[in-house]
Specification:
The protein has 204 residues and is an all-alpha fold. The chain is built from eight helices and no strands. It starts with a helix and ends with a helix.
């Protein structure tokens, strides 16, 4: 059909040129009428043939991910309470026996072996320090152990202290009285006597 339309175009052009310069309303001939019909048909054909514009899809904006709002008042961190394991109380140090001498054993050893001019001899002159056998007086090895049971109700410390300052208060069976000088309470201070007793406690 398009080829038929193209063949009619020269006829149309001739008619148009012929009509130029005339003022009167043109009278359409039968052939012109056919041309107009043909033009209308061409226009309709072109309308059908023209490609239909495909509307561009409207892009729906993809919503941005919603941010998680920060809480206005963030919760306070929960404090972790660490319960300390109770430590058993430390046992109190074992105190020395109430009758233990509070003296300097090293100084007591010096005094034990030192010649006392007023007495005329040293303690070591009459007593062994390393055995229980009698020399002039009794041997002093383990004297603190024997002294615990020598006098009922009297502690070892009290017994030894008394034997130094007042030797006649208790005389061991088999030993004569008055062998031990009774002047040591005057020769020695109380601290020196305690030093000697502390030394005697080491003789075991």
């Amino acid at each position: 059909m398009l080829s038929s339309v193209l063949r009619l175009l020269p006829v149309v052009l001739v008619l148009l040129i012929a009509a130029c310069g005339t003022v009167a309303t043109p009278e359409w001939s039968e052939e012109a009428q056919e041309t107009r019909v043909a033009q209308a048909a061409i226009a309709e054909e072109l309308t059908l043939v023209a490609p239909t514009l495909v509307p561009t899809d409207t892009l729906t904006p993809t919503p941005l991910p919603t941010e998680t709002p920060f809480p206005t008042n963030p919760p306070s961190p929960t404090a972790v309470v660490v319960t300390a394991t109770p430590v058993p109380p430390t046992e109190a140090p074992v105190e020395a026996a109430s009758d233990a001498p509070q003296g300097d054993a090293a100084n007591g050893q010096v005094l034990f072996n030192e010649l006392q001019a007023q007495a005329g001899f040293a303690c070591a002159t009459c007593h062994y320090f390393n055995q229980e056998a009698q020399l002039i007086g009794p041997g002093l090895l383990n004297v603190s152990v024997r002294a615990e049971t020598r006098v009922p109700g009297q502690s070892a410390y009290d017994y030894i202290h008394q034997s130094i300052v007042n030797p006649s208060a208790y005389v061991v069976e088999g030993f004569p009285d008055n062998l031990m000088p009774k002047i040591y309470a005057e020769l020695f201070t109380e601290q020196q006597i305690n030093d000697i007793i502390a030394y005697l406690y080491t003789l075991k």
